[in-house]
Automatic annotation (TrEMBL):
The lineage of its organism: Bacteria, Bacillati, Bacillota, Bacilli, Bacillales. GO terms for molecular function: peptidase activity. Pfam families: Zn_peptidase_2 (PF04298). The keyword ATP-binding does not apply. It comes from Metabacillus malikii. This is Zn-dependent membrane protease YugP.
Length: 222
């Protein structure tokens, strides 16, 4: 089990490397439309009737996200102002989340409902697990497992949300003529690498949960 956790951790590091590498590579390739990420985001939002959703710049790199509470697509400055394949790919992906929100996409709705609970349990679970291991208290370990399982479930539910947003982004970019056939490869590279980070994160969390479950049952047998 330790090997699987280590492998998932290695995959996570490699995925982060791939994300940055692909983004930097395709950030140097201008999109044929020569529109910025902000312009593409605004275009897709308007064409889908999401006029009230704002597009704003945010500091940092790869800090892009959709805020469902404020109804804002926030794009990192390289994406917001950039007019590269990488910029318009990331911008379209975040708009994909806004469209999911509009359509009440099931996995996204569930993730939003889980967030307050996960935000609480993910902070408590480590203390329960570590305390249970140090004190040899199976009841604390068991409670920690239950609390940690919410975080793992959240990670797993995030996968279809992210994959669906990327799928929507690619289809919209093609159907609305935002990219050409020659540009699809770059879009797939950027979005595919980003999706891999979520897969790695989910695997690592799942393997950690299984490890604690095994510890719990081994202690119970003893």
């Amino acid at each position: 089990m330790d090997f699987l956790i280590f492998a998932a951790f290695g995959l996570s590091i490699w995925a982060q490397f791939k994300v940055k590498g692909n983004f930097n590579k395709w950030a140097k390739v201008d999109a044929s439309s020569y529109k910025t990420g902000a312009e593409i985001a605004r275009q897709i939002l308007d064409q889908n009737g999401l006029y009230q959703v704002r597009v704003e710049p945010v500091r940092g790199t790869l800090t892009d996200h959709y805020d469902p509470m404020a109804r804002v697509v926030r794009l990192s400055e390289p994406v917001y102002y950039g007019h590269s394949i990488a910029s318009i790919s990331v911008a379209s992906h975040e708009v994909g989340h806004a469209i999911q929100h509009k359509e009440a996409y099931g996995a996204l709705v569930l993730r939003h409902k889980m967030f307050p609970v996960v935000n609480l349990t993910s902070g408590i679970a480590p203390f329960m697990l570590i305390g249970g291991l140090l004190l040899g208290q199976l009841n604390l370990i068991g409670l920690g497992i239950i609390l940690f399982s919410f975080a793992v479930a959240f990670q797993l539910i995030t996968l279809p949300v992210e994959f669906n947003a990327s799928s929507r982004a690619k289809k919209l970019m093609i159907s609305e003529g935002i990219i050409t056939n020659n540009e699809e490869r770059g879009v797939n590279k950027v979005l595919g690498a980003a999706a891999l980070t979520y897969v790695a994160g989910a695997l690592m969390a799942l393997f950690e949960l299984l490890k604690f479950i095994m510890i719990f049952f081994q202690g119970d047998n003893d």
